[in-house]
Amino acid sequence: MKQLLNQLLSIKKHFIRLILPLLAIALGSSLFATPALAIGVYQMPGLTVSDANWVLDKGDVISRINEGKISSSFEDLAEKTGNEVRFVSVRRLDYGETAESFTKALFEKWFPTKEAQANQTLLVLVTIANNSAIITGDKIKSVLTDSIAESVVDETLGVPLRDGNKYNQAFLDASDRLVAVLSGQPDPGPPEVIDNIQVEGTFTKAEETDQGNATAWVIGLLIAATIIPMATYYIYQVNQPSSDG
């Protein structure tokens, strides 16, 4: 009897050793990762008008190749026209901060006077919710109007983000449009939106399905680890000859 109980406990321990790694996989590493820290304007590096840092990708969403392309086009724009554009991405903002308030405060930190702000454009993206904002100086509003700037944020930048978080495409498209407008060329306009038949939420994503299946397996194994030893012990007890006989 004692030997059987020890065997049952050994089986249960074996199940648990098997389940724990699967449970970690099913839940995903995101549960154990440190969440991205919020950022405030006071944590942003300083900048001067002559600073050549055109892209500040603290959200880590732009590839190095595309960051180089964007920086090169902005540098060429500045040399030819004097108009300057800077892109900033951050993961999350301090509590109570919005993309608009952060962009305005950063714009004033980097360019504290009206003269310094006059030929500047600053676009900020907060990646945790894909909220973005843009602010421009007074000198370039005649070419980069408020309506075009708003369209750049809501459509040129927004459409690729809503279509699967295509950050590189979003920033490349936004930079191309801004450079064209600020160079005095006709506004190429926002990207063409093609209606998709599939409605978001109608179909489960593959990764969601995989995670659900893994979780189901883990739950099943946990139940098995408890029930199998109990059932085996019960069967053993039932099959034991009665002492009354």
Given the structure, what is the number of helices? 7
Q: For the CA atoms, what is the radius of gyration?
A: 29 Å
Poorly predicted tracts of residues: 22-35, 197-211
**How many β-strand stretches?**
4
Tell me the CATH topology of the largest domain.
Diaminopimelate Epimerase, Chain A, domain 1
Helix/sheet category: alpha/beta
Protein name: TPM domain-containing protein
Transmembrane segments: 214-236
InterPro entries: TPM_dom
Domain TPM: 55-180
Describe the protein's architecture and organization.
This protein folds into two domains: 2-32 and 204-239; 41-182, Diaminopimelate Epimerase, Chain A, domain 1, CATH 3.10.310. 52% of the residues lie in helices and 9% in strands. It is elongated, with a radius of gyration of 29 Å. The chain has seven helices and four strands.
For this entry, give a set of tags.
single chain; 245 residues; alpha/beta; Diaminopimelate Epimerase, Chain A, domain 1; 2 domains; 4-stranded mixed sheet; 7 helices; 9% strand
Please write out the topology.
Blueprint (H helix, E strand, L loop, with lengths): L1 H26 L27 E3 L6 H18 L2 E7 L8 H12 L3 H4 L2 E7 L4 E6 L9 H17 L4 H16 L23 H34 L6
Parallel strand pairs: 1-2, 2-3
Antiparallel strand pairs: 3-4
